[in-house]
Amino acid sequence: MVQLARHHDGHTLTRLDELAQREDVSANFLVQILNDLKRDGLIESKRGKAGGYLLARAPREISLFEITQAVESGLLRLNIAVEGESGSAVKAAWDQASQALTKELKSITLDTLGTQSPMFYI
């Protein structure tokens, strides 16, 4: 997404192989992520020889929270049964951490990603 944001002008496509090379990941792995991002309306794609990918919206309108939800929707949820003496305390702590992380992820957009030094509190 950062690569697409760097080259965003609203109409220029970036090829899959270029993205994979710039980020040093396999094209097969990257296409799976791009499909998730496309499904959630964060990117658009065009097929064919002159095809590629571009952001569906301006970089300032796409937050890291949206990206996280698209590729790893369960990341911020605690998926365990709340049982035993410690269960509710663990769930409460995770909920608090999840809320703080969600707030931070929503505040970071693709256009500020390279210029902002996020602070994370644990």
From TrEMBL:
<dbReference type="InterPro" id="IPR036390">
    <property type="entry name" value="WH_DNA-bd_sf"/>
</dbReference>
<keyword id="KW-0238">DNA-binding</keyword>
<protein>
    <submittedName>
        <fullName>Rrf2 family transcriptional regulator</fullName>
    </submittedName>
</protein>
<dbReference type="GO" id="GO:0003677">
    <property type="term" value="F:DNA binding"/>
</dbReference>
<dbReference type="InterPro" id="IPR000944">
    <property type="entry name" value="Tscrpt_reg_Rrf2"/>
</dbReference>
<dbReference type="InterPro" id="IPR036388">
    <property type="entry name" value="WH-like_DNA-bd_sf"/>
</dbReference>
<dbReference type="GO" id="GO:0005829">
    <property type="term" value="C:cytosol"/>
</dbReference>
<dbReference type="Pfam" id="PF02082">
    <property type="entry name" value="Rrf2"/>
</dbReference>
<dbReference type="InterPro" id="IPR030489">
    <property type="entry name" value="TR_Rrf2-type_CS"/>
</dbReference>
<dbReference type="GO" id="GO:0003700">
    <property type="term" value="F:DNA-binding transcription factor activity"/>
</dbReference>
